[in-house]
Amino acid sequence: MAGKLEFVLKMPVVRVINRKESEQYLPHRDPFLLLDETYILEDEKYISGSRLFTGEEDFFKGHFPTHPVVPGVLILEIMSQIGATAIMQQERFKGKVGFLMSIDYTKFRGQVEPGDKLKVAIEVLRVGKVTKLYSEAYTDKGLCSEAQLNFILGEK
Asked: Which of 19, 28, 63, 96 is catalytic?
């Protein structure tokens, strides 16, 4: 199944923010820093990013031992971290932190398994004290989840 943002994954990348650099913009650290890279495409309009699941991640031991899949809440967290990295790297948000406020219109459409590379496509709907992002996550098998992520900005 194709989503409405699949074209975002083919857009030219203006800037790559790797995992280490993302620590400048996010409060997350290992083991909860879940993204590999964030790709800035068009500031304030489109963002993408990725995470490769090797199968060595601890959560696979219990979710589920006979059929390991990435928990949906972690997919939402990866989408959130990629979006927040792209927004918070903007100079006007220096010294701020984005807190996930709500998640709307969430759907899980496919499973993410060990060996899958999760590719996230984001459209920025609104940027400000309350920021709204529409996000879709894909693997090579197609669309696996979608959600609108709503953040509120606070002080670090």
From this structure: 63
